[in-house]
Every structure is written in structure tokens, then in C-alpha cells.
């Protein structure tokens, strides 16, 4: 009989490409300071659309970060994912080249809409010039799976790969998928999500969402948990992590930055925000259960914070349902109000923020939010020092997915 | 009709444009038996080059063009089509 302990999945690398920073360090500095970077959309061809404010990734030059042979066959959403993956691999000390055992590293990404900008360009050729003018890379560039495939090809990873297409909450589901692959024996998984929803076609697709904020003042457009909540603001970018087998990480002397401890996911239907209360509460309970974590152990909550009054209420109530009296005491934050919601990338950015928050002992604030009208301790204005050992990250998708992820501080859990 | 042969110069420019691979025309010429795959040109990249040539010259290239393994094979096939005007 084996007395071997089950494998644990830990975070050893963090890579971020976000509106407020093109590395985990710059992202964290902005998040910690509560700097809001929401601004008027400047992307070409979008000026006339009724969506005016978003979180744009600016000063990102794909041509300096990604080789030409990948650039010609990829959309902006994959550029962000590939750049974030490189940063995460550097951070984990794994390097960008093919590993000694290529089958020991896998890739999992989540995607909410694929490569809209690339797709629009090729479809314009189709209807403007004819089918012979559509480039062959259209067949792969727009596709949800593109980022997973390109990250694995670029670095020669041949371990288990996957793509999660389960709404915004898919960012957390991808992390859970990666953690399961690690527990089953894969050495490391490059996992995360990045999106590029700011292009004409992609933006038109979003205009039908009743939850979208069309407020034109950047600092008033996305203010969840307030009486002025008027919906959410989209963002581009995302984050990629390296999730690795704890023993392997310790053997190679890499810092264990956090443990992916528990995950839960449920579905309650598109735009049925009142019902998301029950779904989110169940997801939290399942995640706590898997993590072997009591509600009182949660030291900080990274909220979904949709910014729709009914959805904000449901989230506050779900926290009360799942955490009991602790829900009124635990600090809650939503740094995404400073950058917008990058769809599947949003919860992965929150996980990155949670890892960094635990390392720095600081709960970052919720930019642009001051007058909280729900019974939660939302951290606003400035970061709050706190000993953070365990974080709960929540995410909901516009199509009805709910997910919760429990992460624990790396040094807290050495065995 | 005018006969336009595909040159190594033009092929190098197409390889750059369609597949994102930088290769000097002389290198293509001197190592024209090196497989496209070794140059970093994948099958979709070659398909893009075929499509671009068809649009430029207003002719259909034979189905085998996109299955060519090397620049030498490709140039041979393309030029026999272009020069015979089939």
C-alpha cells in the first residue's frame, strides 16, 4: 500500500498582459495603487459605436515579442496569450524553449470569443473580393483553440493540452483543468486566458449584452456594488500562469508562489442574475470543500463584481450564503474596476492579483468605487495591509456560468 | 500572352508575406531542395502562397502545387503551368 501523498498543483510562474501593465510587476503596482486606466476606446473603426469606454492594452508591440511566422497566423488575442505565456515561463524559470521532456508540459487556455479582428479582416476579403482572397490562416486564427495550439507549438510542449470554452468563468475552469492534469501526473501546465474584444466586429457582437455599460465617463462607467452601478466595461488582455507539480517545483528549487487548492463550477442560465446567487454559493462551497477550507479561513475575496445591481446583490448574498457570518467580515476587492473585464482573462488576472496580494500582504483596492450599497467589506480607495493566507476568486459569465477558486499562499503550505 | 516565370526573389517575398518566414533569395536558390517544413513554412503557409500566385496571375495552379515538398519542386510545377498557360 502506498503512503504517497496526492500530488498538489502549485503556481510557479505569473505572466500578465493587461491594460494597466505589460508584466506581472507593473500590473501589481497599478492594482496595488488602485490606478484606474479605463479610457475612451481609440481602436480604429470603433469610433462610431455606442460602446465608448474600455480597458485597452496600449504600447503592446506584438512584432517585438512574437516571431513573424506566428504573427501572420494569429489574432491579437493569441498575441496577448503568447506574450503572457512567455512571461510566465520566464518567471517560473522554465525558459521558452522546448523542455527536456516535451510531454511533461501541457497548455490549457480559456477563450470567450476567439480572434474577431483577424476573422473580420478575412471575412471582408471574402465578401469584398471573393473566396480566393481569404488567407488559409483564417481556418485557425479566429478559433477559440488558437492560443493553446500556438503556445504549445512555439515552445514545443507536447503534454496534455486543452481549451475551455465555458464563458468568462472558464478562466477559473481552465486553472482547475490544469490542476487536475498536474495531479494526474503532468509536470507543469501553462494555463490562462487572454482576450481581444476591442475591434469593430467584436464590439458589435457585444452591443447586444444588456449588462454592457454605455456610460461615457471612464471613471463612472464601471462601478459595481454602488447605487451608480450601470453595467460592466470590457477589457482586453489577460494572464497566464505556470501551474506545476509541487514536488517537481521544489526539486528544481523554484519558489512555490501559491497552491491551487479548490474549485467549483455551476450554471444558472444567461442573464438570470438573481439565480446566480444559488449557483455562485454552491460553487464556493464546492471549492472550499475540495480545498479542505473552512469559510473563516478565507482572508480575501476577489469578487466577480459585474456592476449590474441585481448581479451585485446576488453576489453579496451568495457570499453570505456560503461563508455565513464571515461574509460580512472578510475583505472583498475587485481590482478589475480599474481595467475592465477581459472576459475569460478577467478571473485569471484576478488569480494573478490574488497570488501577488498574498505575497505582499496587501488587499488591493477597488478603483472608482466609493459608496458601497451592499453588506460586504469592499476595500476601496487604498490597499489594506493584511496577513493573507487564503484567497477566494469568483467569476460569472454573461451566459450563466459561475465559478469559484481557492488559492493558498505558497509558503503557508510547505509539507 | 506574356510569360512570367516565378523567380526565387518573388518566392522569397511570398514566403515572407504569406508564412512570415524570412529567407534570402540566394539561400532559397542554393538550397532549393531543403523542404519547406525545414524552412518553417507549414502547409497552410504554402497554401497561402498558392492562392496569392493564382490571384496575381489569374490562373489555377495544379492541386499538387500546395503539396510541393521543396522550393525546387514548387518552382518547377508553378513555372510549367505559368509558361504553358494551362
TrEMBL record, chain B:
Coiled coil: none annotated. InterPro entries: ACP-like_sf (IPR036736), PP-bd_ACP (IPR009081), Ppantetheine_attach_site (IPR006162). Gene3D superfamilies: ACP-like. Keywords: Phosphopantetheine, Phosphoprotein. Signal peptide: none annotated. Residues 5-86 form the Carrier domain. This is Acyl carrier protein. It comes from Streptomyces bikiniensis. The lineage of its organism: Bacteria, Bacillati, Actinomycetota, Actinomycetes, Kitasatosporales.
